[in-house]
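Note to self: the last two entries modelled the partners one at a time, which told us nothing about the interface. This time every component goes in together.
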Amino acid sequence: MALLAVCLLGTVCSCGKDWLGAKPDKSLVLPSTIADFQALLDNSSQTFNVAQASGLGEISAGDFYITYTSWLSLFTTQERSAYTWEKTADFYKGEKSGDWVNGYARVLNANVILEGIEKIKPKTAEEPDWNNVKGSALFFRAFDFFCLSQQYCKGYDAVAAISEPGLPLRLDYDVNIALKRSSLQQTYEQIIQDLKNAAAILGTNPLHKTRPSKQAAYALLARTYLAMENYDAAGLYADSTLQIQDQLMDYSKLPVSGTYLIARFNPEVIFQSIFSYGIFNTNRLLVDPLLINTYAANDLRKSVFFTSVAAGMTYRGSYNGDKSFFGGLATDELYLIRAEAYARKGMLDAALKDLNDLLKTRWKGNYTPITGDDQEWVLRQVLTERRKELVFRGLRWTDLRRLNKDYRFSVNLNRTLNGQTYLLMPGDKRYVLPIDESEIALSGIAQNER
Amino acid sequence: MRLINTGIVLVLVLLGISASAQNLDIQTKKISLAQFFKELRKQTGYNVAWNEDEIDADQLLEVDIRKIPIKTALDQVLGRLSMDYSLNGKTILVKTAKKKTVVAVNPQVEPDELENKPIKLKEVEIVRTGYQEVSKHRVTGSFALIDTSLFQRRVGPDFISRLEGITSGLLFNKNTLSSSSGNIDLSIRGRSTIFANDQPLIILDNFPFKGDFNALNPNDIANITVLKDAAAASIWGVRAGNGVIVITTRRGKYQQPLNISLSTNYSFSERPDLYYSPNVLSSASYIELETFLFENGKYNDALADPASLQILSPVVKLLNSQKQSGILIEEQLDALRKNDIRKEYEQYFYRREQRQQHALSLSGGTDKSSHYFSAGYDQTWAALRENDNSRMTINSQHSLRPLKSLELSLGLNYVRAAARVDSTISNTYSPALTPYYQFKDAQGNPTVLERSYNSTFTEAALSRGFLNWNFIPLEELGKSPSNRLSHDLRLNGSINYQIIPGLSAAVKYQYQRIDQQSTRLTSEESYYTRSLINQYASLTAGRVTGYNVPLGAILYRRDIKAISTNLRGQLNYQKTFQDHGISAFMGYEISEFETSGNSKVLYGYDQQSGNSMPVDTLSRFELNPNGRDMIRTGTNLFGILERIRSAYANLAYTYQGKYTLSGSARIDGSNYFGVKTRQKNVPLWSVGGLWNLDREDFYLVDWLPSLKLRASYGFNGNLDRSNTGITTFKYGLLGAPYTNLPFAGIINIGNPELRWEKIGIANFGIEFGTKDQVLTGKIEYYLKKGSDILGDREFPSNSGINKLRGNYAKMDGNGIDVTLTSQNLKGNLKWQSNLLFSAMKDRVSDYGAVEPGNMNYVGAHSNAPVLNKPVYGVYSYKWAGLEPSSGDPIGVLNGTISKDYAGIVNTTPLNDLVYHGPARPTIYGGLGNTFAYRKLTLNFNISYKLGYHFRKTALNYYSMYNSATNLAQSRDFEQRWQKMGDEAQTSVPSMASYGEDAFRDKFYINSAATVARGDHIRLQDISLAFDLDHSNWSNIPVKNLQLYCYANNLGILWKANHFGIDPDLIPAPGDQLSNPTPRSFSLGLKANF
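The predicted structure of the combined assembly is written out below.
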C-alpha cells in the first residue's frame, strides 16, 4: 500500500503544476501589480486615513468636558475610563483597545504592501508609481507607530529611551510571528528611518491629500522630533515642509454660515487623516470654558472652531469638513513647530514672524503683530497659540507629556464628574495608556501599569 | 491453479467431473446457498468456490436431499438455480450457466412459491461506489442500499427528498440557513466540519453531480447507494468528508427484448395553512396595540409633520381624527376588527398545489448492443398563484459490443426546466399592511396600498408630472413575474476493453453544460418601473421635465453558465482463484468545473424589437424624493473555477469467501487557492476487513444462520474554498469616497499553513439474519475524529488581526446506525417492517477562540463553536419565571435572581448560560410497514427526529414599539401576562412600558423560556398499489399494470413542544407566510408493454 501511495504521489505531482495554479474565484485579486497595491493604499474610508490611534489621548487631554448623563451614555468602557484617567485594571473591562487594534491592522496592510511591492521589478516608466507605493506604505507604518507610541509608550527621554518599553515593532506581514515590545529608542528610530526612506522616494504632488507625499513625510518627521524634544531637527523638517507647501487659509474669507465652515482637503491640509469616538459628538462634547476664554474677541478661530449649544460651547467641525476629528498634517502645525524651534533657539524675530504670519490669517479686521524680546515670553506665546490653533487635532496629549517636564509650562489636569473630582498631575504614570487585557494575554507583552 | 471466469469456463467443463460416490443428506425448509455449500463440505469434504460478484450465496432455497450421490444432488439443486459447476480435485467450482438468460427477479416472489419451477437466480446485490460495482458480500465498508421499490413508490418531483426516512444515517436538516433559503440540507452521520462544506458528495453515473437536484427525472434512477465510512467513501478523497451518495441511472441490457414502460400520475395538495405562522396577530389585538402606541405618542412626529413621507395605518389615522375632532370611531374600528388578512391571502394569492408527471421509457438489447431511451414531462402549479414550473427530460443511453472484449457506451441527457415566480406577496410589506388590510374595497375594486410613500405624497407627485406612483397589490399580481429557464445537457462516453481475462481498461468521459437564464420584464405599467422612472426623473422648479431612466419597460436578466468536464482512466483487475479472490483497480482522473454569472438591466426595453435605450451609468443622480444613486446596468456576479486531479487505487482480497481485506488510497490535488504544492496534494487512505462468520465450519448457531462482521478505518477529506493560503484583495465596486479612486481591501490574510481537513472514521458493523430470514439487520458503530478542522484562532492584535481561520480545531463524534427488517406475516397476507435508527453525537474537542459577550451563543442556535459541545447547540439565559406582581421576566445574574436585563445580556459569561442540548437531531430514523395481500400492497412510513432543542420566535415588545410594528407581530401577545396569577399559565411577559429599552426583550427572547425539545414523530406517507397482470386479468393488453394512490406529508403524530410549532418549520422573526408543506394526494399508473 505504501509503495502504491508513493507511485500515486509521483503521478499526481509530476505533471501540470500550472493547471492547479489557476485562480478559483474571479472576484478575488491576487495582488500582483503596482496598481493593485496602490488601490489598497487608496482605501481611504476603511483602512487608511481613518480611525488613527489618537482618540484615547484626546479624551484624556482635558480640553473638553461632558456631563455625567453623557458620560453614562457612552458606548464603550474605554471612553469612560480615558475620561476619568482610570487605572489599568479597570480601564477596558474586557474590551479591546480600538486604537491599538486599528493601528496595527493598518501596520499589517502596510507590511503586506511593502512585502508585495518588493517582488515587482518596475520598468523605468513605472518607477514613480512603484516609489509612491513603497514610500506611502512606509509613511503609513510610521504614522501609526508614531500615534501608537504617543498613547501606549512613555514620553521620549533620550537617556531612558534605551531601557523603556516601546511598541512591538511589526515589520513583517506574517501574523504567526510573535513579538515582544521593543525599546522606546528602537521605536523612534524605526519611525524616523521609515519616514526618511519614504521622504526620499515620495513626490511633492500627491494626486489626493489622502495620499502621503514628500512634504507629509517631512511634516511627520518634524512632529516626531518635536515629541522627542529635538527642536533643531523639528525646526529643520518643518522648514523643509513649508518650502514645499506653505499656504494658509484666510479665515476671514471662510463662509460665515453653514454646519461646517472649513472644507475637506483645504489648502492647509498636507495629509488627511481622521479619528472619532462617540464622546466627541457635538451633543456631548463641551469645550473647556477656560480654553474658550483664551481666544481674543477678534480671533476668528473662536467662531470657526466652536459653536454654542444649550450647555455651553461645543466643537463645530474640523479640517476634515465634518465632525470627525482631523489628526492629519496641515501647514498651520508646521508654522508653529518652526516658530517653537526658533524661539527655543533664541531666534525670536523668526519665531514671531512665523507666529504673526499664521495669526494674521485668523484675524477679523486689522491684525496687530505680536512683538517681544523675552525668550520665555515668546516661547509661551508660541505654545499658547499652538494649543489654540491645534485644538482637537490629536496633538494636545503629546504636548502635555512633553511640556509637563518643564515646570514653566506644566499643567495639572482636573475634572469633576458626578460630584467626584479627578486629578492628573505632571509625570503621573497615567500619562501612558494601558494595553487591553486580551492583547496582554495572547501576546505576553509587558503591560503599562498605572 | 484453475480459474473460474468467463473465458475459461469451457476448459473447466471439459475437465469433466469425477463424481464422488459419497452421499449427501440435507433436508431443510430454508437454507442459504452458502449454508448448503458448508453442509456439503461437512458431509463430503468437498470445498466449494464461487464468484461473489455473480452468485448471491445468501439466497434462500429449499433442499430436500435424502442420501443421494453428490453429483445428483448438485444437478438437482444448482440446475434449478441455472448454475453450472465443475470439479477440480476436492474443489467444486460453481458459476452461472452462460447459455441461459438470467431473468430479472421479481423481489416480491418468494422462492417457496416456485416449488417445482426452476428457481430464478437472484441477482447479487451490488454496491456502487462510482468507481466500481462490487458484490455486497465483499464490501468491508459501511453503505446503505436504498430500497428501490420503496423509492419508486414515492411520488415527488425530485429524487433527493424521496430518500427521507428510508435511508439509514441520512438526515434532512431543517431550519438551517441553507434549508430556509430553499436548498436541501443533508448530513450523513452527523456533522464532520465546523465551517467547511457540510454537504455530502453526490455522484451521478460515475461523476460528481453538478446542478440542480430537480434536474433529474426520478424515473430514470436505477439505484442509489450511500457510502458512510472511510472504507466506502475515501475513494472519493477530499470530497468525501461528508459522505457520498452514489446514483446510477437506468441502462438497457444486452439480450433483452424491447420493454416499454409508461408512468403517469397526478397530485394535488390541500390548501396551505396560512394560520400556522405565529408572527401574525388578530386584527383586534393589533388595533389594541396600535391604540396603545398612539396614546404613547409614537405617531406624534409623523402626524405633526404631514409633509413627511411617513405612512400611517388607517387605525392611526382614525385615532388621530378622533383626537383632533372628537369623531366617534368605535364602529369603524369594530368593522376593521372583523378583517383578517390571512383570509385575503388565501382568497387572492393561494390555491391548491397541483402537479402532473409523465414518463415513458424504452429499453432493450441484442447480443451486441443495448439501448435505453426515456422522456419525461412534469408540470407543477404551485400553491402561490402565478407560480408554476415545468420540466422536460430526455435520456438516451447506448452500449455497443463490437468485439467480445470491447464495449463502447454513449449517452445523452437533456433537461429543460422552466419556472415562473411571482413575488408580489412578499414585495407587499409596508407599515400599512396590517392584519386588517383588505386587497379589495367594498365595491370589489382592488385597493391601493401605501407601500413606500403615503397617499398625500403620491397625489402631489401626480400633479407635479410624475407617473402614477400608486401601488395596487392585486393589479401587480402576475404582471411581472421572474422567469427562469435552464438547459442542462450531459454527454458521456466510455470505452471498456478487456486486455486479458480479468484485466480490463476503461476510459470514461463526461461533459456537462448548464445554462440558466433568469429574466424579469417589468412593463411601464408595473409599479416597479413607474417608481424607478419617478425616482430618477429630473425636475425643474419642482416639476418633472425629463427622465434619466427612460419611459418604457425594464428588462432584468441574469445568466449563469456552468461547464463541468471529467475524464477518468482506470485499470480493473478481478479474478477468483480457487480459494482466493482479488478485485483491484487503479486510476487517474481530472475534473474541472467552471461557472460564471452576470446580470444586466435594459431600460426602455421594447419586447418586439429587443431594442433598449441607453442610460447615463456614470453620474450620480439626485433621487426623488430623496437620496443619490447611479443607474445600475448590471454586474458580473461571480466566476468560479474548480480543478481537481486525483490518482487512486483500491485492492480487495477474499479468502475462501470467508475473509475479505480491502485497502484504498487516493491523492488529490486541487487549485485550492494558494496552498503550497506540497499541501495541494493530500493522501487519504483506508483499510477494512470482512469476516463471514457464518461460513466457518465451527459456526453452528441454528437460530442465527447468517452473521457477518466488518471493521474499517481510514480518512476522508474536506475543504473550504473561501479560505486561501495567500493574501487576496477584493476591489470596491465604486470609487473611494471623496477621491473616487479605485480601491481595494484585504479579504483574506494568507495563511501559508492552510491544509485539508481530515476526518478519520473507524467503523464496526455486524450483519445478521435469523432462521428463515424472519429478522435481518445491520448494526453499525462508528467513531469519527476530525483533525485539522477549520476553526478560528485568536491572535494578538499587534499581528494586525484578531482572528484567523485555519486548521486550528478538532472534532470528534460517534454514533450507531441500525437497520432491521422483519417478516411479520407470511402467506396470503404478508407484512414486512423496516426500522431505521440512527443516533450520533458530535463534539468540538479543540477550539481556540471565544467570542466576546454572549450574543453569538444565545440566538436560534449558537453561531460560534463551544469547546466540548456540538457545533450547533442551543444556549439561553437562565429563566426564573414571571414576577407575580408585574409580569416582568426574571433572570439570574451572578447567581442571584435579577431584573437587571442589561446586566444579564451584557455580562453573563458563557459558563453561566443554560446549555439545553444540540440544535440538530441526534436520534432519527423511520419505520416502514408493507402489507401485501395478493396483488394489493399497502405501505406507510413513519419518521422520527429526537434528541434536540429549538428556540421559537418570541414576542419582542421593543421591536413592536420602535420598529415596524407589523413586522414584529407575535400571537404570543394574546398569551401575555395581564394580571396576577397569569404567571402560572404563561411565560410571556407583560406589556413593556413604552419607553422600555431593548434589554428586557433581548433577555426574554433568548431565555430558557423560549426553548423547547424538538422531538417529534411524523407520519410521512401512505401508498396503496394494485398490480394487474396475466394472473388476475388474462386479456390484459399490456405486460403488467400498476394502479396506485399515494398520500404524502400526512402530519405530525407526536411532538414534544407545546408552542404549536412544527420543529421542522420554525418561522424566523417577521416571517408571516411560511406554512408547513400541506398534505398531498396522488393517483397514478405504471405500465409495461
